[in-house]
């Protein structure tokens, strides 16, 4: 009897011990949340003197421009070539494969690259889009950072309720990156729970402006990467929403603002072979030769990505080169591989200088990348890039998502459609306001012409 009692007690203890281990293992599960934040909508149809003044004074609300952008944001046509959906937070469905679902394609490719880069890393990955108005306005970017803060915190709290502390990775493209930086201002100014942590903030082609650059020092951001390309001519063109004459490519220290060690600035370069003429064989490629290593050889050409090629797919009708070396893929999907090799290089460097940008030179034709300091040959790293077979597989993955008839004519038609709707709405509203103004003016003149009658005062 005592033996049976002992066996029963032992069984119960063993069961409870295993249950505790299972619960502990469940709570130790690694979860990563990745949020994609898009840039502004095109201002090309709105470059007029009146809008120029509005942009400079940050007074763009209730205008034809703002209403046009609103219609464009509601048009799914503009979601088919980038990681963007309707305004607000939207979880990306990796299992949804259909034409025009570019957000799903970005997340799938990004996830695939990360899996190939870290084959032994076991993370449960979740991907999201945060959509905002996309207006060229510093004030709007701050206001939009408030719902972004709330949305990220809501997702994090759901996992915390399960005993899981997820890692948060935020990828902001163009002015979407300045919106992300405003999370630091939101944490400081708004009365929200302030234990939110952004483990990685990746800024891609972001115009660096004095209105938000200092926010990189806010403790909400644990690690920050500023990634830019000298082939990106748009990044520096914003002189509307900044006090400076033009935006910058990189963060620069100034009085009362020092660059933090958690910030790493990266210049992305892409290099290709010179195209052979008349079947002429190209000279042998020797990576140990300094001109080859530096990319300054006459056998090589700079093919660095432009602004659109950082984020959009190759079926984008304008500004994405048909012969771009990684076409039809955007650079954003390769970030896991690039940052892994970058961090390994920085770890090996005894005294990495965080104030100077690092160059990552991608050479797809030779299946490697070169990582070096901008003006030094110390700590040069030659790492593997994906082989042609893998790149072909990535390209094949895009085929089920590629939209039909995504031409420049269609693109311009949808912009014109949004613009026409906005003009019609604006004219109706403006006409109503003018009518009310006329009535008020008429009443004022009528009242003005009436004889003044002094009221009798009661003592």
Summarize the structure.
By secondary structure, the chain is an alpha/beta fold. The protein has helices spanning 2-27, 49-57, 64-74, 102-117, 138-160, 175-189, 290-294, 335-348, 388-398, 408-449; strands spanning 31-37, 88-91, 124-131, 167-173, 200-204, 224-228, 263-273, 300-302, 358-363, 368-373, 381-384.
Blueprint of the fold:
Layout: H1 2-27, E1 31-37, H2 49-57, H3 64-74, E2 88-91, H4 102-117, E3 124-131, H5 138-160, E4 167-173, H6 175-189, E5 200-204, E6 224-228, E7 263-273, H7 290-294, E8 300-302, H8 335-348, E9 358-363, E10 368-373, E11 381-384, H9 388-398, H10 408-449
Parallel strand pairs: 1-3, 1-4, 4-5, 5-6, 6-7, 7-9
Antiparallel strand pairs: 2-3, 7-8, 9-10, 10-11
Helix pairs in contact: 3-10, 4-8, 5-6
Largest sheet data: 11 strands, mixed
Portion in beta strands: 5-15%
CA gyration radius, whole angstroms = 28 Å
Tell me the helix content. Answer: 25-40%
Uncertain runs are 19-27, 441-459
Shape: globular
What is the domain tally?
1
The first-to-last residue Cα distance is 109 Å
Structure classification: alpha/beta
State mean pLDDT (0 to 100 scale). 85
Q: How many β-strands, per DSSP? A: 11
| SSE pattern, N- to C-terminal | HEHHEHEHEHEEEHEHEEEHH
Number of helix segments? 10
């Amino acid at each position: 009897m005592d033996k049976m009692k002992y066996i029963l007690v032992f069984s119960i203890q063993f069961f409870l011990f295993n249950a505790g281990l299972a619960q502990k293992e469940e709570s130790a599960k690694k979860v990563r949340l990745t949020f994609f934040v898009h840039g502004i909508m095109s201002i090309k149809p709105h470059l007029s003197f009146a809008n120029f003044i509005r942009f400079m004074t940050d007074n763009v609300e209730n205008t034809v421009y703002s209403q046009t952008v609103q219609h464009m944001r509601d048009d799914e046509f503009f979601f088919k070539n980038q990681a963007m959906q309707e305004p607000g937070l939207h979880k990306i469905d990796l299992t949804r494969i259909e034409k025009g679902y570019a957000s799903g394609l970005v997340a799938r490719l990004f996830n695939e690259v990360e899996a190939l880069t870290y084959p032994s890393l076991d993370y449960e990955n979740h991907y999201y889009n945060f959509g905002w108005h996309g207006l060229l306005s510093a004030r709007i970017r701050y206001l939009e950072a408030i719902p972004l803060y709330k949305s990220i915190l809501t997702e994090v709290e759901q996992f915390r309720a399960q005993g899981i502390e997820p890692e948060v990775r935020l990828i902001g493209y163009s002015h979407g990156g300045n919106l992300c930086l405003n999370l630091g201002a939101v944490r400081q100014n708004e009365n929200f729970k302030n234990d939110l942590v952004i483990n990685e903030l990746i800024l891609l082609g972001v115009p660096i402006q004095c209105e938000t650059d200092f926010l990189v020092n806010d403790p909400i951001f644990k690690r920050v990467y500023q990634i830019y390309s000298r082939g990106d001519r748009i990044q520096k063109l914003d002189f509307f929403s900044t006090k400076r004459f033009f935006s910058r490519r990189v963060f620069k220290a100034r009085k009362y603002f020092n660059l933090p060690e958690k910030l790493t600035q990266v210049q992305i370069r892409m290099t290709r072979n010179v195209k052979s003429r008349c079947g002429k064989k190209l000279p042998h490629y020797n990576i140990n030769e300094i001109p080859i290593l530096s990319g300054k050889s006459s056998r090589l050409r700079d093919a660095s990505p432009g602004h659109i090629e950082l984020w959009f797919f190759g079926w984008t009708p304008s500004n994405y080169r048909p012969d771009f070396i990684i076409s039809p893929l955007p650079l954003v999907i390769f970030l896991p591989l690039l940052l892994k090799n970058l961090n390994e290089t920085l770890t090996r460097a005894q005294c990495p200088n965080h104030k100077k940008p690092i160059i990552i030179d991608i050479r797809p034709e030779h299946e490697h990348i070169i990582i070096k300091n901008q003006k030094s040959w110390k700590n040069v790293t030659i790492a593997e890039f994906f082989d042609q077979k893998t790149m072909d597989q990535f390209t094949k993955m895009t085929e089920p998502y590629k939209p039909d008839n995504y031409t420049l004519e269609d693109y311009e038609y949808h912009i014109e459609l949004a613009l026409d709707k906005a003009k019609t709405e604006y004219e109706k509203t403006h006409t109503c306001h003018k009518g009310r103004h006329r009535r008020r003016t008429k009443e004022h003149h009528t009242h003005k012409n009436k004889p003044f009658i002094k009221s009798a005062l009661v003592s």
